[in-house]
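It is time I had a proper look at our fold encoding. Can you supply me with one protein entry, sequence and fold together? It will help me judge whether the discrete encoding reads sensibly. Leave the record below and I will have a look:
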Amino acid sequence: MSTKQKPKVVMPSEAEIPALTDRVTAINAELAKLAEEKKGIEARLEAYALAHSEAHEPLKDEKREGRRMIFTGASRSLPIVFSSDLIIGTFPANGPKHKELINILCGENNEHEATAEATLKLFFDAPSKWENRYDNGVKFRAAVAERLGSKIGAKFVSACTQTDKHGVKKSTTSFDYTHGKVVES
């Protein structure tokens, strides 16, 4: 196993301190300016992508829900990914979400409430609030599919998806800079 060597740091002389201080603060200011510019450009591209959903394509990872659109510049392409894997992290014991999930498990499996609670513990850590046991939506969905099957699994995952105050499912949007490709002219 190869370990990455730390680069040797050359301690500056007292005479170099003012120039290094000026340079690092200039770099920091430039990074902040570029970050703000990047944020504005990404917001504009996202607005365009949302307004042109007919140009979206499914994600390559079939285990995830969502879609993507690929922007092409003069020299690079850039995928924008709209994923909808935001599974709830926690919910209070005996709250509305807890009752909804128990009803799904009892209704579809004809389980008693105690058995439904045990099934729920396969996916969430128990009270005082129920906490998601999986660190991402893909793992959560795979575990649900394996343990509950497709019919109950789909209802269960849908009930576990985060929604805003209007009931609209929450999602994330990201720009996939690592998979952008060089555009040949």
Notes: The chain has two domains: 17-84+170-179, 90-160. The two ends are 41 Å apart (CA to CA). The helical segments are 17-51, 96-109, 113-120, 137-160.
